[in-house]
Amino acid sequence: MKYLILGAGPAGLSLANRLLQNGIEDFLVIEKEKEAGGLCRSREADGSPLDIGGGHFLDVKNRRVLDFLFHFMPEAMWDEYDRDSRIVVGNNTINSPIEANIWQMSLNNQVEYLKSIAVAGCNLGKEMPEKFVDWIYWKLGDKIAEDYMIPYNRKMFGENLNELGTYWLNKLPNVSFEETLISCLERKAYGTQPGHARFFYPKEYGYGEIWLRLAERLGDRIRYGERAEKLDVDNCIVNDTYKGDCIVNTVPWTDIKEYKGVSEEYLKDIEALKYTSVVIEYIGEKLDTKAHWIYYPDPGLSYHRILVRHNFCPGSKGYWTETNLTRYDKIDKSASVSNNSESSDPLTGISDKGRYYINEYAYPLNTIGKEEIMQHLLAFMKGRNIIGLGRWGEWQHYNSDVVVDRALTLADELSR
Q1: How far apart are CA 177 and CA 173, in angstroms?
Q2: What is the CATH number of domain 1-32+225-272+369-416?
Q3: How many CA atoms lie within 13 A of 106 on its CB side?
Q4: Could you give the CA distance from residue 295 to residue 311 in angstroms, rounded to a whole number?
Q5: Which one of 83, 183, 276, 339 is most buried, counting C-beta atoms within 10 A?
Q6: Cα-based distances in Å from 328 to 61, 125, 285, 358
Q7: Exposed, middle or buried: residue 67 (CB in 10 Å: 0-12, 13-18, 19+)?
């Protein structure tokens, strides 16, 4: 075929459907799971949808993305929300991001945080450090670093945070002592809003429904239960079976077990790519909060955040937690990852509180040297008509709306 697309998550599905819209029908999508959607798939729990890959929402900002997706699932089938995300820090529960909402803390805590921010390295003109942990202290001050950022990131990404680079942290809000002080005096948030400040979520379905609809439109151009295990880069052949003039890869490079025509140098680079696995656990209790999701830096809690389903999914109850697999203590973790890698679905089990799902590939890690690795790898592959796309193809922590936008751009380029 002209285009062979690896993976039927948001990236692969959006690319394929845009190609169809542009009049290109000579392509095939292969997908290792039994259904489409990737990390954005949904299941049913207690009669309502549960997103088994964690919390996924559709940002309202990009009109091109919205118009494309609403073609498959009209806007009238979605509810629109103002984001309500919160952080539990000690005895304080405040809105996110923390640096914009210190004014919601007790007066004594406000004073402590303001004093800490005032002497943060970036506010004193000190040189920016290279290590992740040092950078957090330099950028945010001791209090935010030790009460929130360091423990939260350890829970989410692992204990050795200095494996992470600092190149991706410029997206954090810029902390100005003056603005934070004014915020506390005027008792209102200052600064830019975080991602998903407004978002859409389906009225009657989980977030996985939109991707099932994109998959349905492709008909027999998707082949399920076909893991991309072998890649011959010189001939654009996958699994000794599927050949494309061009391959678009949206699956993790590390999930492809055998490469032909790839030097040892590039194989070592692929091996060096790191990621985290997460457990999504459903708990059927209704919480007394209006928040959509809540962050928990407390090391004593295994999970790092919860998604309060009944506040964005009408008629539902309960919530689900998101936990790094290394911190989840209700199962044999080593067996779980092994089983999951051979499964055609996230590993599913029942805990003492509810149902859980294990996602082996959840977040690509921004480790030191990753940017250089991906720059070289993607250039090498592109020179052989293999293009990396999306969260895993580009090894970037893209949200689904960003992935769709990048897929549309690529499809339009390929259609010229």
Answers
A1: 12
A2: 3.50.50.60
A3: 7
A4: 16
A5: 183
A6: 35, 41, 20, 10
A7: exposed
The SS3 call for residue 282 is strand
Please report the sign of the dihedral spanned by the C-alpha atoms of residue 62, residue 410, residue 214, residue 6. Answer: negative
How far apart are alpha carbons 97 and 288 in whole angstroms?
21
What is the C-alpha to C-alpha distance for residues 186 and 180, in angstroms, rounded to an integer?
Answer: 10
Coarse DSSP helix, strand, coil percentages of the chain, rounded to the nearest 5 percent:
40, 25, 40
Residue type, 189: A
Q: What are phi and psi of 402, to 5 degrees?
A: -65, -40
Give one DSSP letter per residue of 316-380, joined into a string. ---EEEEEEGGG--SS-HHHHHHHHHHSSS-EEEE-SSSEEEEEEEEEE--BTTHHHHHHHHHHH
The residue ranges of every structural domain in the chain are 1-32+225-272+369-416, 85-186
For the chain, 416 residues long, give each residue's pLDDT as a single digit of tens. 999 999 999 999 999 999 999 999 999 999 999 999 999 999 988 888 899 998 899 999 999 999 999 999 999 999 999 999 999 999 999 999 898 899 999 999 999 999 999 999 998 999 999 889 999 999 999 999 999 999 999 999 999 999 999 888 876 666 678 889 999 999 998 776 666 789 999 999 999 999 999 999 999 999 999 999 999 999 999 999 999 999 999 999 999 999 999 999 999 999 999 999 999 999 999 999 999 999 999 999 999 999 999 999 988 989 999 999 999 976 655 554 444 444 445 566 665 556 889 999 999 999 999 999 999 999 999 999 999 999 999 999 999 999 999 999 999 999 99
Integer Cα distance of 196 and 85 in angstroms: 10
Q: Please give the model's pTM, rounded to 2 decimal places.
A: 0.92
Q: What does the alpha-carbon distance between residue 181 and residue 170 come to, in Å, rounded to a whole number? A: 22
